[in-house]
Each structure stands twice: as C-alpha cells, then as structure tokens.
Design brief:
Blueprint lengths: L2 E3 L30 E8 L2 E6 L4 E7 L5 E6 L6 E7 L8 E7 L2 E10 L8 E7 L2 H9 L2 E6 L5 E4 L3 H16 L1
C-alpha cells in the first residue's frame, strides 16, 4: 500500500447529510496536515484513503484544474464533511451556503479553511448528519454550490455512489 501525505482540499464539505451546526472546537473536522494516509482502494475515479491517525476512511478526487473534493468523517465520527479546495486566487469566508443536488435544495454553514493546508490550497467545508443529503450526494450527478458572498461553482458527483459505498466498507474494516 502507498502512504499518502494529506492533500489539502478546497471550498465546501459535507458527506453525511444536510448541513448541521456543530461546535467544531470540540473535534477536528478536517484531518491534520501532518496526517498520514494509506491508499485503501479506488472507485470510479475517487481515491479511498485510510486516515491512520483517526482510523477512518475518506474519498478524494482531484480534477483537471487541481481542485480537490474530499468527503469523510469528523474526528469524533459524528458528522460527515464535504470539502472543496483549490489553489486558485479565492478568499473563502465562513458564510451561509446553498447547495443544489440536481435540483434538490440544502442549506448550511460553510466554514472557510485557509490555514493548515499544504501547497497553498484553500477552501471550505460543510458538516452533515442528514442521511437524505448523503443519499442525494450518492445518487445525483452535479452539486451546484451557491456561497452567500462568492461565485457559484459546480462539483461533479460522478462515481460518488460506488465511492461512498466503498468508503463505508473501509470504515467498517477500521472498527472491526
């Protein structure tokens, strides 16, 4: 297996459902920049990685523009997160975000992440614990993101159904 160092991610986060407010002072949402990742597998263009410091799995994809999309669990495994990160010249801010999954609407608080990420990446994430959101991420093809004070952008969800299923299997193996 290949060890991978933490790849920074950009813009939004949410894996496990509709965004929910949580006090993230009590746990780490994103893996630490010093975390070590072990490649567990690949599913439809998504890398499935084990975060050895947390004992949890995540999925990650880097597009042709270098934008990183990552979905995983918080350090306490109570929430999922969906993060989008870029090296582009953007200034992410904490704000309300509207997410449309092929027309199905969700709202949540985006948390900006500009420090602790390697190679100049910045972006944000949303937390989620609504199973309907996760199901929609798995079954829809495009996630349109409408930050309160920034430009709208789209994220391809191609392959997320199989990738999230595989990540769940990976997570089950970490706890058994």
């Amino acid at each position: 297996m290949i060890n991978k160092k933490w790849l920074p991610i950009t813009a939004l986060a949410a894996l496990a459902a509709c965004a929910t407010t949580a006090e993230n002072d009590d746990f780490d949402v994103l893996p630490k920049s010093s975390a070590t990742f072990v490649e567990w597998g690949e599913a439809e263009g998504w890398d499935i990685l084990v975060d050895t410091s947390r004992g949890t799995c995540l999925i990650e994809r880097v597009d042709t523009n270098g934008t990183v999309v990552q979905m995983g669990l918080t350090s306490n495994a109570e929430f999922g997160y969906l993060g989008v990160f870029t090296q582009a010249d953007v200034s992410p801010k904490d704000n309300l975000v509207h997410v449309s999954l092929d027309g199905k609407q969700y709202y949540g608080d985006a948390e900006a992440q500009t420090s602790k990420l390697k190679n100049g990446y910045k972006g944000g994430y949303i937390l989620a614990n609504n199973q309907n959101f996760v199901n929609d991420v798995m079954k829809k093809y495009v996630m349109s993101v409408y930050p309160e004070d920034a430009n709208t952008f789209d994220v391809s969800l191609d392959g997320t159904n199989e990738a999230i299923k595989q990540a769940r299997q990976c997570n089950a193996e970490q706890t058994s």
